[in-house]
Amino acid sequence: MNDTFAKFVIGAANQFAHAAALAVANFPASGYNPLFIYGGSGLGKTHLLRAIGEHVQQRAASRRVAYLPAERFVSDWVHHLQHNRTADFRQHYRQVDMLLVDDIQYLAGKPRAQEEFFHTFNALVEANRYIVLTSDRLPQDIAPLDPRLRSRFAAGLMAEMQPPDLETRLAILQRKAAAHDLVLSPDVAMLIATQIRTNVPDLEVALARLTAYASLYNLAEVTTDMADTMLAQFFAERAEAITAARIQSAVAERLELNVSHLRSKDRRRAVAFARQVAMYLCRELTDASLPEIGRAFGGKDHSTVLHACAKIAGLEETDEDVARLLWQLRRALGK
Fold this sequence. Notes:
Residues 1-4 are annotated as: Domain I, interacts with DnaA modulators. The protein is an alpha/beta fold and 335 residues long. It is built from 16 helices and 5 strands.
C-alpha cells in the first residue's frame, strides 16, 4: 500500500472522513464500527481505506488486516463455493482483525454474496473486530440490497467525502508537482484548479501531462500560456453544461460564500456583489431569460437582473479587479 495519511491532502470536503479514518486506525472503538465512507468517484475514499490498513500494520505488524474491493470478495466467494471450500473462505475472512472493503455497492443484486457478507460482518463485530467500508452512495441508496445489511452499514459512523474545494485542489496540485520536481506557479495551479473541480484523478492527469511536457523540453517551469495550450483539449473534454447552478457554485467558491447567500435576500455588500456577478454571467453564458435568472436567485424580478448586468458590465470596463475576477470565473466555467 502506497497511500498513507501523510500523503492525504485535507480540506473542508474531506476533513471529517479523514478524522474518522485516523481515529479508527489509532483507536478502534465499537462506536465507529463499521466506518462507512461514501462519496463520488475519485475523491479519495480508496486512499483513506488503504491508509487505515497501512497505519494499523505499521503500529502492530501482527494485526491481520484484509483490504479488498467488494468485487474480489464476490469472486473469492464464487471460487470457493464452486470448489466446495467455503469453510476455507470463512476462516480467512472471519479471523482478520480488520476488514477493509472498497466499493461495497458492488454487492447490490448479488443475494448469495450478500448473505455471506452478512454473516462475515456479524462474525467480525461479535469478535470485536473492525470493519471499514467505502461506497459511492449511502446505504439506503444501494439497491437491491438485503435490508439487514443496509441496517448494519448505517448503524456505524457515516462519513461523507465531497468534491475538493478550490483551496484543497490547489494544495493537491502543489504537493504532487513537488513530488515530480515541477515548479507550478500560482497562476498555472489556479488555471488547472478552476477548470477541474470534481475529482482528484483529473487533477493528476492534467499535472502528469504538464510534467511530461516539461520533461520532454527540459523545462523547470511551465508558464500559464503553455499550460493553457497543452491542456485545452483535456479541459474541453471535461467541460460541463453551464447552468445557473454551476455559475452560482463557481462564484460562491471564488468569493468564499455559500450558494445559499446568492439565493437569499441578504443585502450585505459582498453578497450583493457576488449575486450581481453571478447574474451577469448567467445572462452571458446561458440561454436563460431574465425572469428565469431571477427565479434561480430566490425569486428576484427581471429589473433586478437587468440592473445587476448593467452594473457588472460597467465595472468590467473600468475596474481591473472585477475584470480579472470575471476572466477567472469564465475560465473556471470553461469559457
